[in-house]
Design goal:
Blueprint (H helix, E strand, L loop, with lengths): L17 E5 L28 H13 L4 E5 L9 H9 L4 E6 L8 H6 L4 E5 L5 H8 L4 H13 L3 E8 L8 H7 L6 E6 L16 H11 L5 E3 L8 E6 L5 E5 L12 E4 L4 E3 L8 E2 H6 L5 H9 L11 H4 L2 H4 L11
Parallel strand pairs: 1-2, 1-10, 2-3, 3-4, 4-5, 5-6, 6-9
Antiparallel strand pairs: 7-8, 8-9, 10-11, 11-12
Helix pairs in contact: 1-2
The protein binds S-adenosylmethionine (SAM) and iron/sulfur cluster.
Length: 335
């Protein structure tokens, strides 16, 4: 496919080949780090992209060089037309993947396989049923845990996302790593990030360095293998020698990976975000609905991308509520 113009390259020389599409603002869980307790203001249904619009926008990105699309949300699997969205996107020349909380994923095994989805990221923040209930505000641990095994048995490449919070689940880091002894999964410890309404502060976060302190305290140095990170990887990858799976740390707060960022995000109401941390958005849906080309808007949005974390290039700026509270809640961005 010939690119007319490299509209997906920013002024820092980064090419954006990866699009994350949020399909829905709603969720069947209520993770406290992701959404405020009182919920979020939902867009009216007519403001959300239809499956045809998702396909049209995705096609434009693919024409300009996107080769990977990840579906996210809210919870993407609660969208009623998810089978047709998967089918339409699977017809494009992309690697299609999904992020899900895995609560109802057992109902979608066939449709995911049929549409070539191989990589699935699931969220599981605690191996303790009560703690899971506390953090997600829903009693769904058993099914999520069972579904993790089901996905592995069904041959998917499974990554398990764990958002770490101080004095809540940091004492489970080694339990999670021990899961990788037999299971061929990658457990990814994510530094808790600030978004509107999630009551973030630095002291609640468990840093990359702190995770490694736990790891070094439990395994001998020669058994901790640093793995080669994939190009554009957001995580620092490790493995315990002889274990089937691996673990990684996503350190967006203490050690951002912006230099190699290749991601763009499309929200469920058709806004393009050039960075997870950026408070500015570009309205693709209104332009698409007006029958005009969305390419100039994409180009402008990509050009405006800051070098580091939506302009919050220091930890001081990231800690400034005025700056990060202008951003949406994570549930309406999609991770
Ligand atoms: N519902 C799906 C899920 O939970 O995987 C997809 C959407 S969720 C917003 C995507 C990812 O964002 C999840 O792995 C979640 O743990 C992560 N996430 C949400 N809020 C976060 C925060 N404040 N800091 C770090 N990661 C966060
Ligand atoms: Fe829902 Fe995922 Fe956010 Fe949890 S992290 S509330 S599962 S969207």
């Amino acid at each position: 496919m010939k690119h007319q113009q490299n509209i997906l390259q920013d002024t820092h020389g980064r090419d954006h080949g990866y699009l994350r599409i949020s399909l829905i603002e709603r969720c069947n869980l209520r993770c406290s780090y992701c959404m405020p307790e009182e919920g979020v203001q939902l867009s009216p249904k007519s403001h959300l992209m239809t499956y045809e619009e998702i396909y049209e926008i995705a096609k434009t990105f693919v024409k300009h060089g996107v080769t990977k699309i990840r579906l996210t949300g809210g919870e993407p699997l609660i969208r009623k037309d998810i089978p047709v969205i998967l089918e339409k996107l699977a017809s494009l020349p992309v690697e299609l993947s999904i992020s899900s909380n895995a609560v109802i994923i057992h109902k979608f095994i066939d449709v995911l396989k049929l549409n070539g989805v191989k990589k699935i990221n699931i969220s599981l923040d605690s191996l303790d049923r009560e703690k899971f209930k506390h953090i997600t505000r829903r009693d769904q641990f058993d099914i999520v845990y069972k579904n993790m095994f089901l996905l592995i048995e069904e041959g998917f490449n499974v990554k398990v996302n764990v958002v770490l919070m101080k004095d809540f689940n940091d004492n489970e880091i080694i339990d999670f790593i021990n899961l990788t002894k037999d299971l061929p999964i990658s457990v990814r410890f994510i530094e808790f990030m600030p978004f509107d309404g999630n009551k973030w502060n630095m002291s609640k976060m468990v840093s990359y360095a702190e995770v490694m302190n736990y790891v070094n305290g439990s395994f001998s140095n020669e058994n901790i293998e640093r793995l080669q990170d994939a190009p554009n990887d957001t995580s620092k990858n490790y493995k315990i020698s002889g274990y089937n799976g691996s673990f990684a740390i996503i350190s967006s707060v203490t050690n951002p990976f912006c230099d190699s960022c290749n991601r763009l995000r499309l929200t469920a109401n058709g806004q393009l975000k050039n960075c997870l941390f950026s408070s500015s958005e570009s309205d693709l849906l209104t332009t698409l609905r007006a029958g005009k080309s969305i390419e100039p808007i994409i180009k402008k949005a990509v050009e405006a991308k800051f070098k580091v974390r939506g302009g919050m290039d220091t930890l001081e700026k990231l800690q400034e509520p005025k700056l990060h509270n202008n951003n949406r809640s994570m549930i309406t961005i999609g991770g």
